Amino acid sequence: MPKQEPSVPESTAAEPELPPNQMEVFQDVLRTLEQHRLPCAVSGAFALRHHTEIWRTTKDLDIFLTADAASRALDLLCDAGFQCEVCDPVWLAKAHRDGFFVDLITGMSNATLRVRESWIARSLPALVVGVPTRILAAEELLASKLFVTRRERFDGADIAHIVYATRGKLDWNRILELAGPDWEILLWALLFFRYAYPAQCRYVPLLVWAELINGLMSGLVNQDPAARFRGSLLDDKMFAIDVKDWGLDDLLTEYRTSLVDKILWSPGPRKLEGAA
Predict the structure, then answer these.
(1) Does 273 fall in a domain?
(2) Domain count, the chain
(3) Which of 114, 104, 112, 137 lies closest to 38 in space, CA to CA?
């Protein structure tokens, strides 16, 4: 029999029904963080819904926060009865209960983009699973998806939907600032949008197109022979042969190793409630 490809859920406007226990986990995490006024913002499927009206079945709740705030959040959630762990100090921690979990995210796994206080300051008030909280602004949500380019997970359609659903009414200077030296990835994402929505390419201002394309043309005309290989930042598995067998640069390891603001947290003994 031919091998069947794993099914991919279709995009939809229909709200998924979460199991009651999962809903309670999400609500309790958000209430705990809101009660202690910990600066954070919801991202992932709930933020995508907020900005595009697209619902996507989700197994977790993504919360974006700085690395320092993540350490404090883990303490608070441990005290609230959650089982917590740091999965990857570069970008990811989790809080578990009843078989469900919440992701605490501090940046991209390739260490190119970090959650800063400005991300939280620019977030928007929203109601998530019935709890008043905050949600990532569209610009930060778009930026957070730029490097999700793996074979098994690609967020290009999400970026296209953000641009389309907002009719391009975005702070494009902020988006360019967030993309920074990785502006080619932004250009790639916008070309993907242009291909999908050729009649709506005006949603991206001409000045943005001009800046990105002029940068591309300048790089093509004035090619830098010392420019470093960046494939591992896109997908370390698909570009493994380049690094391991062909001796090209391993920027992924360099970026991750040199990162300063990692999640610094360990469980440690917890003080029991009512103890002296």
Answers:
(1) no
(2) 1
(3) 104
> What type of residue is 70?
A
Per-residue CA distances from 234 to 22, 150, 158 (Å) = 32, 7, 17
- At residue 224, the 3 state secondary structure works out as coil
The answer to whether position 233 is within a domain reads no
Tokens matching residue 122: 């620019």
**Residue 78, domain extent:** 1-136
Q: What is the CATH number of the domain that holds 127?
A: 3.30.460.40
Q: Is 179 exposed, middle or buried (0-12, 13-18, 19+ CB in 10 A)?
A: buried
C-alpha span between 80 and 147 (Å, rounded): 33
Distances (CA, A) of 122 to 62, 71, 95: 17, 21, 25
Low-confidence ranges of the chain (pLDDT < 70): 1-9, 269-276
Pairing assessment for the beta strands 60-64 and 100-105 based on DSSP bridges: parallel
Residue that is written with structure tokens 């702070």 in the block: 171
In a domain, 77, yes or no: yes
Taking the C-alpha atoms of residue 179 and residue 185, their distance in angstroms, rounded to an integer, is 8
Q: Which pLDDT tens digit goes with each residue over 35-72? A: 999 999 999 999 999 999 998 777 889 999 999 999 99
Q: pLDDT tens-digit profile of 108-129?
A: 999 999 999 999 999 999 999 9
The answer to whether residue 57 is domain-embedded is yes
